[in-house]
Amino acid sequence: MSTYDVAVIGSGPGGYVAAIRCAQLGMKTAIIEKYNTLGGTCLNVGCIPSKALLDSSHHYEEAIKHFEDHGIEIPGDVKINFKKMIDRKASVVEQTTKGIDFLMNKNKIDVLTGVGSFKDETHIVVSSEDGDKTIEAKNTIIATGSKPATLPFIELDKERIITSTEALTLKEIPKHMVVIGGGVIGLELGQVYRRLGAEVSVVEYMDRIIPTMDKAQSKELTKVMKKQGVKFYVSHKVSAVERKKDEVTITATDKKDKEVTFTGDYCLVSVGRRPFTDGLKTDKAGVKVNEKGQIEVNEHLQTNVKNIYAIGDVVRGAMLAHKAEEEGVLVAETLAGQKPHIDYNLIPGVVYTWPEVASVGKTEEQLKEDKVDYKSGQFPMRALGRSRASGDTDGFVKILADKETDEVLGVHIVGARAADLIAEAVTAMEFRASAEDIARMSHAHPTYAEAVKEAALAATENRPIHS
Ligand code: FAD
């Protein structure tokens, strides 16, 4: 029987990063993955393929809507080769997952293909078509991730009533896609198909889209996506989804309790994700799973069984790849006797629509609720030379700072390259910078990042230069 210092179950961004860091720290490591490709949700059916389609559809939209403004004329019609677009996405995924094979090899991590399940606290059975193999592991890291969630009355047929996984491999562009859920995944994929010509209706239960982000961001993104042709139905509670042949009817009640129906050829159900532990046999090791289906962990990401840890989407907290990665590193370093730490307040959240939406720290609504005395500085993207040059004038940077100490408490951006811009905010907040610290740093001109400096100036003493 093979024996390991660490066995990692699941090869998503949590699992493979944990495995690499364990190997770097000298531990004999195995990673168990039930699929033939490594990389988990993120690389196979999440972050990477969705960004590939967002980029392809963005290029198309630029060509049909904005090239002309730049004096670029295309003789004849611009056409979509949807199959090629989907094939390109598949090849991006393939290159990326192969990169993980390379990294496993480089770090001498044993890759075991099959479903991992506990036999007891220190033994794991790996089941595949070739039969069962049992390994012994001094420590185990559970990184089994999540799967799309649904509503109890919705039967996902995965053809017309679909999740994000199917939406990434459609064979045709929908005529009318009804998206249930105005969160990150629904908006990103909704925007992809809107750009490609579909009618897109987003039906959201809460009174605004991206409800966990700053209200100003929800408002701005709604405004911009409406301009792009997406229809929004907030405060609508979906009560039924029915398919008849190639038609799907979605029934909802609005806030006045009036029944509304939407008919489309596809319905994308994007109502969140559920932690995934099916087949893991946690009970055999005595690992506790809570009522939400998450594996219970303490602040060291240790389960109630002391040699078993859990990370990523299968535990509490934001379901984000970079959060899973940080947790993977934390557990590896803890096992090596170090004392790592994660500041969950500084895990940024991003929506990769265009304009992008990015956020870190507290929202204005949270600060109000926590009764924190704060000040706010906001700067519009349209006032930047860089934005005018590219034509990306939607959005803003908003900085929230402590009224007394000027410490930055939250940064919320809507705009071109917001996903990259937020890194400056994370760095500043990690070092507990004040708004004035950011305001006094030189930002290259012309860049979108100048909006961060200007918003910091606005937050410091309401003294932006360019507005
Ligand atoms: P996962 O990536 O889910 O990996 C878990 C792995 O464990 C899977 O490969 C699974 O097959 C394997 N597994 C499960 N059980 C077993 C078992 N018993 N034996 C063996 N193997 C097992 N996050 C971002 O940060 N940025 C984004 O842009 C982004 N975009 C997304 C877009 C979409 C459409 C979706 C669906 C998600 C997106 N996410 C994004 C979320 C991100 O994908 C997840 O947060 C991330 O993948 C979680 O990583 P993980 O390692 O916890 O689990």
TrEMBL record:
GO terms for molecular function: dihydrolipoyl dehydrogenase (NADH) activity; flavin adenine dinucleotide binding. This is Dihydrolipoyl dehydrogenase. Keywords: Disulfide bond, FAD, Flavoprotein, NAD, Nucleotide-binding, Oxidoreductase, Redox-active center. The keyword Nucleus does not apply. Residues 4-328 form the FAD/NAD(P)-binding domain. Belongs to the class-I pyridine nucleotide-disulfide oxidoreductase family. Residues 347-456 form the Pyridine nucleotide-disulphide oxidoreductase dimerisation domain. It is an enzyme of class 1 (oxidoreductase). The keyword Oxidoreductase applies. Pfam families: Pyr_redox_2, Pyr_redox_dim. It comes from Marixanthomonas ophiurae. Its cofactor is FAD.
